[in-house]
Design brief:
Bound molecules: ligand PMT
Strand content: 15-25%
Number of strands: 19
CATH topology of the largest domain: Rossmann fold
Shape: globular
Radius of gyration: 25 Å
Structural class: alpha/beta
Amino acid sequence: MTIMKVTVGVCGGVAAYKSAELVRALQKQAFDVQVVMTEAAQRFVQPLTFAALTGKKVLTSLWTEPETGTADLVSAIEHIDAAITTDALVVAPATANTLAKFAHGIADDFLSTMYLATSAPVIVAPAMNVNMWQHPATQANIATLEARGVTIVAPASGYLACGMTGDGRLAENEAIIAEVLNHLHSSLDLSGETVLVTAGGTREALDPVRFLGNRSSGKMGYALAEAARRRGARVILVSAPTALRVPSGVELVPVITTSEMRDAVMKHLPEASLIIKAAAVADYRPRVREEHKMKRSGPLTVEFEPTEDILAEVAEKKLPGTLVIGFAAETENAIIHGREKLLRKNADAIVMNDVSQEGIGFDSDRNAATFLTRNTAIDLPEMSKRDLAHRILDEVLVLRRPRLVIAETGTDLTGL
Ligand code: PMT
């Protein structure tokens, strides 16, 4: 089973002592917990407390020797490594100061640097004096962070350590953990699976500076990789060039050409229990790649040859029990062509998207699809690629556990 890693950031406030209980509660949910403390937090609670609870060194500084500011390579890359490998960053208590740093991109300690470097979901639970909480500066920072996708677990109201009464008490652990589970998909229903996702558009070189490519941004494939990871899978992402950040905890295998993508997919095929081919793969490549940049001289004819059909080869060579899900980018007679692709390439399912529709498909944050199997066609109406990724995975799991429907009423009991 894949164990998800949660980083708990502790800031300097009276509520810092409550973070120890939070660490325990997260461990009870089977998360692997790493603690990061700000300098101020260490004035309230000793790092030793968290080291004893987690059995791990508490990350406190960007420098090996905080007093002298000297760093070795290990400490210099530690925050990047922590940021890349964590599945969620939970900051509790989050002080007004740390929230301000997050909102303004100030990276002057381990926690604020890690915040900028991570692509994992970030959950902050503020705790502070009521006037600090209600101050327009703090509220503006909260609004900025919310707009950037940070989840805020609002402070509770009550008696505060400063003697005042009002909003500012650290939220209960149950509320914080509910958000963590919400982000990391409470059921972890892909735990134990190794999901191989392909993403982006492959490039076929004409000469050293030019290539034949397509409009794929990789967003659909990256959303699938992120969703599968959040649902507990080990995820290998074979990606053609994109401008996207690799989702936290996902293993990236970068490729450029169709041939490289084919080799990477075949190399990892024996490890995969589920393969999702969201990449827009070139069907043809120039028969000859010119050694030098081609000179402009009148009309040009380029001869192309077909590339390897990766999806068909995967379906042929996969181990028994491995599910193979292809995509189909269609512009006309979408369902007919999608189903024809399903049969011809012998996939278990095809996610057919009609890329002729405005605002969805290539290089958009939104998409709509039909999940086609040999005998079903499930409509997945327009939504964000993130949501669609989860809906696709829901349908993939139905292939593992067949749909249970009462014939007379049509009531779907799957998942009950
Ligand atoms: O990347 P985005 O900007 O987010 O856009 C998403 C998307 C539109 C690219 C994606 O949703 C999509 O439709 N991906 C498949 C695009 C494609 O290549 O479709 P196709 O109908 O040409 O290919 C069918 C299937 O065969 C695909 O799973 C493809 O990965 C695979 N294939 C195609 C050719 C080839 N030589 N080898 C393959 O494995």
